[in-house]
Backbone:
């Protein structure tokens, strides 16, 4: 059973109920789901992609809960976490600030980071820091280079559609997330349920702040390169690649392997950006890697 928590960015004490604190950006709360023993010495933090949410990691959390404490936050403006005040606030540095109080709980423990897309970028930023709290890194279809063509594609699909019911949400997700092929009907229904919210007009909308789309569209002009970050990372790393991905291309993977010959690689045939990490083969690979490093 996964438990829901909400916490302020500015506090470090876990609570079962919503709590608030003040940051220099105002009062904002971060929600996260957890599974497993909170006292475990081994913590797994799973962070989702740009428009996703914490329930993307239910399968991994369930698989690891017997041996690890698994924490899956909603980034600001997604899921049950508070939205930020302006489109320009939605950037990696602000996300890391929001995550800092949560990570501070685990300073004396081993943290294994599982990050899809944006979540992987945040993991790389943390892993590259001197004396990083990150022990191992799982990167799901993300590397230290973001091709402009992929950024443009992402910007093109992140408008905020309206839906009449959950069935329409589910159908939209099935058509949009083609890389999730192979999920069961039950999994799609879960993603629709947790990935939508009432619109206030009698219908449903996707469970993220529309301002995220505005900021993403404003930052799609050119390829982003973060190779210096990758060179600074020494932790064991598993890279999951969708072989049809336009965000993590074969050339990028080859360069990553050249710089890190010990990089472990799981390739998913016919899958684009990004593999769901919900299918048995993907879950098994992630769980095995983390347990080997624990």
Residues:
């Amino acid at each position: 059973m996964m438990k829901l928590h909400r916490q302020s960015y500015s506090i470090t004490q876990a609570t079962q109920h919503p709590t608030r604190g003040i940051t220099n950006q105002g009062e904002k709360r971060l929600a996260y789901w957890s599974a497993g023993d909170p006292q475990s010495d081994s913590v797994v933090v799973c962070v989702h992609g740009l428009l996703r949410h914490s329930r993307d990691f239910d399968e991994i959390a369930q698989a690891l809960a017997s041996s690890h404490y698994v924490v899956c936050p909603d980034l600001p403006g997604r899921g049950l976490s508070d939205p930020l005040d302006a489109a320009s606030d939605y950037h990696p540095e602000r996300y890391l600030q929001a995550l800092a109080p949560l990570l501070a709980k685990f300073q004396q423990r081993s943290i294994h980071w599982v990050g899809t897309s944006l979540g992987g970028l945040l993991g790389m930023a943390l892993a590259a820091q001197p004396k990083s709290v990150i022990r191992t890194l799982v990167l799901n279809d993300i590397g230290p280079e973001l091709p402009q063509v992929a950024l443009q594609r992402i910007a093109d699909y992140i408008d905020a559609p309206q839906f009449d019911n959950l069935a329409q949400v589910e159908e939209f997700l099935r058509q949009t997330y083609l890389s999730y092929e192979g999920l069961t009907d039950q999994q799609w229904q879960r993603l629709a349920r947790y990935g939508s919210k009432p619109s206030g007009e009698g219908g449903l909308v996707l469970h993220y702040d529309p301002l995220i789309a505005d900021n993403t569209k404003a930052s799609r002009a050119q390829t982003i390169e973060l190779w210096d970050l990758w060179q600074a990372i020494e932790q064991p790393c598993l890279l999951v690649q969708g072989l049809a991905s336009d965000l993590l291309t074969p050339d990028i993977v080859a360069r990553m392997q050249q710089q890190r010959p010990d990089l472990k690689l799981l390739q998913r045939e016919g899958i684009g950006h990004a593999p769901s990490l919900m299918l048995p083969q993907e879950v098994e690979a992630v769980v095995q890697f983390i347990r080997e490093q624990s």
The two ends are 23 Å apart (CA to CA). The chain has one domain: 3-293. The CA atoms of residues 2 and 35 lie 5 Å apart. The chain has a mean pLDDT of 89.
